[in-house]
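Margin note from the TA: students keep mixing up input and output lines. Inputs are the sequences; the output is the structure of the whole complex. Example:
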Amino acid sequence: MNHWQVGILVLLVLLFAGMPIAFALTLVGLVGVISIIGMQPALALLGSTFFDSGRDYSLSVLPLFLMMGNFVVQSGIAGELYKAAYAWTRHRKGGLASATVLACGAFSSVCGSSMATAATMARIALPSMRKFGYPDRLSTASIAAGGTLGILIPPSVILVFYGIMTQQDIGRLFLAGIIPGVIGVIGYMIAVRISVALSGHDLPVEPKLPLKDRIMALKGTAGAILLFVYVMGGIYLGVFTPTESAGMGAGGALLLLILSRRFSWKGLLDVLYDTMKTTAMMFFILFGALTFSNYVNMSGMTTDIQAFIETWGGNRWGVILIILAIYLVLGCVFESLSMIMLTVPVLYPIVAAQGFDLIWFGIFVVVVTEISLITPPVGMNAFVLRSVVPDVPIGTIFRGLVPFVAIDLVRVAVIILLPGLVLFLT
Amino acid sequence: MPETDPSSGKRPEPVPRTLGRRVLAAVCGTMLMAMMALTVCDVIGRYVFAHPVTGATELTEMMLVGVIFLGLPAVSLDRDHVAVDILTDRLPGWIQPWRELLVSILSAAILGVISWRIWIYAGQIASYGGATNSLRLPVAPLGYLCATAGAVAAVFMAVVALRDLRR
Amino acid sequence: QTTLTVANWLPPSHPLVSEVIVPMTEQIAEATGGTVKATILPAPLGPPGAHFDFAVNGVADITFGVQGYNPGRFRTTNVVELPFLGESAEDISVAYWRVWEKYLQPAGEYDQVKVLAVFSHGPGEVFLKDGDPSATDVLKNRKIRVGGGIVHEVVSALGAVPVEGPSSKAYELLSQGVADGITFPYESVAYFKLIPQLKTAISVPGGLFNTSFYIVMNKAKWDSLTEEQQAQIDSVTGEALARMAGQMWDRADAAGRAEMEGKIAISPATEDQMAEWRAALQPLTDAKLAEAASAGIDAEAAHDMLAAEIAAEAAK
Ligand code: NA
Ligand code: NA
């Protein structure tokens, strides 16, 4: 085994021994760099990486988007979205589950995190679906899957990290996420219909609402729509920059929370404490990943892998399929952020060298990461559902997710075959 | 099962009622709100008064670093560092606290090294008077603050692991 | 054989890399008869501002960067960043190197490294989305995007509103109307794809400002080379390297200017504008020279020598 192969092996051992990802990455990166440039320079680089990397204005969007999502969660907007969506789907079989998927998509447009989306929608949608006799495997799966859209439909915390690691424009990445996100919503609604057809359950159907009532039901969604239009429109029309959109969005979400009359000082303190902790935790993973990628950079790993691809024929689509396979396997065991931090620094130079657009690759990576959130054994969104309804076995949730994962694979195929669809809005 | 959400906050959990956590929440919360307010004032100032806030960029950068490092002791206290526990969950129960201790001590040691190096780096920056671009605020004190917060977080991590071992 | 690692934070296609750093590594190999080889790392090791310390601490053997990315650290740089110094990056860079050797080096700012070159970008001009370029108050209350360094103060002194943001965000700021214009060399306007965003330009005789760059080497690594190798490397760096870098910026500026043909109307600053701007910027020049002098150098003498050397080079 050569230098970097040993490094990767040690990293995997530490990770599976349960060492926090941030420090496992730092340890392997640091020791690797020491072995290449010596103790003193490597330690100096460590100090610089941890102190200089955070002093970057464009990184300020992370805590501000997190804060925006937390304000939106507290404002109770999710319930309004769900009510409105149901007005449009209640006359269909499995209408509540379809409404769940729609509401997840809408909520994703104001919240940058998948788990926050799933957790919020679970509290809103599960009680109704249980009341109407929906089988647990359908109700939990529709929420877990719908929640994954949180990191694809802008704003998205994961796209921000991707943009920073690959020096891609975050505004363009956000715009690129919209169409695949809408395809995701449509796909999950199809998955709901498939599940309903397969389950054989006789689900209740309500009479179709007149158009006027359906339109009236949208009234409660005004806050969310305004917030989304304000953030994305502000970027698109150039009122503020994508970097500024996070602060502006957080301000808008706070205003929304105050208008919803759910504001409390204690609630505010909770939001701030949570945002602070998540920020610290995520940034330390980022710094660890940067330390590790310095090792990758110095060890010649990228060059080795590129040389390997060239000797092996170097078909660019073959490269993408191999990367897809790697992500599907890693996605079984890693959670989303760590997976992206581990793989993107290594893979993006290779993908760029093959002539792929890095904005497109970002969307590809996020969609395969969405799949990782709902595949066993480690599927974070399934775990979220499990923690909201502890009486449902995790196996039931994963079984319910099978049609959703299948539809997701179709979506990945669409993204690979029609890259223009992703880049259309950018 | 990992309780933390790496791609962010589930519904925020109530802040535990310990003084230390509340102080951290208040200090970092103020900085987060200030970052938000700076952006809003900068954008509004630009349109309404044709006058953006001088130094908004560098103040935001410094507060971001402040939030990252001051948030770290809270992450350590609440054991919110993300780890892969798919294999470790299957280990026999008596091993768990020992494995936890080993991993925590190793992590705390690395965090200690990081803090030590930031401290030295801050000294280097102080030696040549490194400052921010527009407001000319000195950068070194921020480095000393980060190093201190990192060291505190390292101690918390080790202490929490030892406490769990005693249980 | 000794191998030197070169840290790079720019894309490989950037002319500073492809036309200065890469040729420099080739010249070092050639001059030393292949006994010293320099290889460029494939990805950045950290943000641009960290690169001087990378050379100090031996993280990489050779690094390059902009002094202005470390505010407060390089006070002598003020001498070369002043307005109205010269038209050609080559002239300014060669003169700057000579002045640096004589007057600026003793300040000790570079004592922790071996300096391979200091040089300057081409002069900064004014670019606007609209407005009458001949009006003396053309910049009054206009929002002008600025980066670091002296530009912020130059723009303020001319009555404009500085909008801060990194150069990578310049397109964003202009296209979204956050900024009405920018002060940049021709090269950077083209490089950051800002031409479609801008309509008029004012070419200021001597330029409104310059940007100073460094290429430095880790001291211990330098000391580990033989005296013969050191002499061989000295023969292709220093003034020769500063000249090569200046020529590159001049070529890039010319290419940028050619690209603007028919898209941006470039007009020279009028007599009235120059009179007004000279007066407005004099206090800034005095303050910057005083700041340079606080590093323990004779800033006036350095400034005079710089002007004389630039004139001598330009006369060639
Ligand atoms: Na989202
Ligand atoms: Na998974």
